[in-house]
Amino acid sequence: MERTLAKDTVKKIGEKVRLAGWVDTKRDHGKITFIDLRDRSGMVQIVGSGSEFSSLSPESVVEVVGVVKRRPDNLVNPKLETGKVEIGAEKITLLSKAHELPIDMGGEDLNVSLPTLLDNRSLTMRHPKQKAIFKVQEVVIDAFRRALKEKDFIEFQAPSIIPEIPEGGAEVFEVKYFDHKAFLAQSPQLYKQIMVGVYERVFSVNKTFRAEPSVTTRHLTEVVSLDAEFGFIDTWLDVVEMAEYTIKYIFDAIKKECSKELEMFSVAVPEIKDKIPLLKLREAQEIVYKRIGLDERSEKDFSPEGEREICKWAYEEKGSELVFISHYPTKARPFYTYPDPDDPEFNQGFDLMGRGFEWLTGGRRIENYELLVKHAKEWKVDSNKIDLYLQAFKYGMPPEGGFAFGAERITQGILKLPNIREATPFPRDMERVDIRLSKVQDYNSKSEGEDVFEKIVKILEKNGVEFEKYEHEPVFTSGQAAKVRGTDIHQGAKALVLQAGKEFILYVLPADLQADLEKLAGKIKAKKLTMASKESVKAKTGLEVGSVPPLGSILNLKTYVDSRLSDNKEIAFNAGRHDRSIKMKYSDFIKLEKAQIVKN
What we know:
Layout (H helix, E strand, L loop, with lengths): L15 E14 L2 E8 L2 E8 L1 H4 L6 E10 L14 E12 L17 H6 L1 H4 L3 H22 L4 E2 L5 E2 L11 E4 L2 E5 L4 H11 L1 E9 L12 E10 L5 H21 L1 H6 L13 E3 H12 L11 H15 L3 E5 L12 E2 L2 E5 L1 E6 L2 E9 L3 H10 L8 H8 L5 E7 H9 L12 E2 L2 E2 L1 E2 L9 H17 L4 E5 L6 H8 L7 E8 L2 E8 L6 H7 L6 E2 L2 H8 L16 E5 L7 E5 L5 E6 H8 L2 E3 L2
Parallel strand pairs: 3-5, 6-10, 12-13, 24-26, 26-29
Antiparallel strand pairs: 1-2, 1-4, 2-3, 4-5, 7-9, 8-9, 10-11, 11-18, 13-16, 14-15, 16-17, 17-18, 19-20, 20-21, 22-28, 23-24, 23-25, 27-28
């Protein structure tokens, strides 16, 4: 007997059918068992009896043979496409038994933390709302393709291993390529420009990689980039218009094909009244300054707060939830971006902001060979390593430009997801490649916090170090900590997690002092130091800000100690938790940690 899909059962009332799928939910009512059977088309209710049914576990895979029956009017389920029928089972075969589930999959929402959601990704993606996310994303990518094909674009596949870093910056993954050094591509930019010389209009759907040394709600290290590039433009505004056409096409496709998914998330596609507004960066920064007093008028880009505010302005003043921002400082963009002839300090590049963050970047490119070579040199890009790219311009290239959307960013924006990790099936960031990479994993777990504390205690005991340990109420400031321990605030060993490029370090100083990061960077010969975000601290150490101990050795961090901490015979510090502290001799700490002393 040929297999029937769940959705087709409504056309086979009175017929015997064979179905196969997963046990979505099971309800026992005395001797009768009701099962919602799930397959690729949807769900249908199965009615059976006996131990073969009652013993089934959720997510087990079964095959059912039975007769399709019309449900009584009072038992119709309007939420199901098959809600008017049910299957009276005559035979059931267990194809694969599922183990006990680690989380409840039966609710309308998965009420679990993000780490738990991702730790159980193979299972959680089966939930209807999770499946809906990736249905929307599939339509986003497909609509991007269709939009551009209707404009005579041709798709090509760009390489992921590249010889040079055209985007600039340190956020790149280096690859050992046999006896040579190569990199994972930050974008297919150079290759799509080359292909403009072949087909005139091209696009690609590529995986791209950025070594983002931070954990935010908007960044991943591996993303799907939707790239387009085309020649014979009259002005850079042609590129803006093509980008606007494409995002509107995507929105129309989502409205037509994903109405059910949008309803599940109680959202609609972003509103646009006629045209998407377009502002130059300095104009937009002035607007933000006048609205909320945030002064970024000399900055090369917006802060997250600035992005959110300019999106609010666009919606309130122009009726659009999207806004184009153009004319960024030329030196802040890649070497190939076209400087504005009227004001070369700024370029003819642009970003598309939506619902508080960036969705797209694009612009006109330099097509002049000599100018490209000059810019490559100024941007410190090795022209020998991009010779293949430069060839395309050496042998003739029309005025051209392009843009790139982030598929995950669009999905996140449309569905208003709080974290971009929810918008990719298998997220990669600095703490996760399928599994969590942090040695101390769940920073929300009290028992995990106790492991760090106990680990410190064991290390001290093993090395014969005299110390005192404290259990106290949670403390979140240096003043609170000193008071609850009965110590002087200068005795507090404040441990700061800092970023030096892609590397993290630990800087320890007296709790009553402020860190001068510029001065410290000079002393330890770091190009630049920044304070790690609380998300990055959690990702790197597994601990919350304020609970990090000064023992970088147990956290795989190089430790630098401010010489002024030696003013104290004894130091005290939070030891992996806000409610656990340790006091020990400064000399024992230095001997144990073997830290580098920074003189002040």
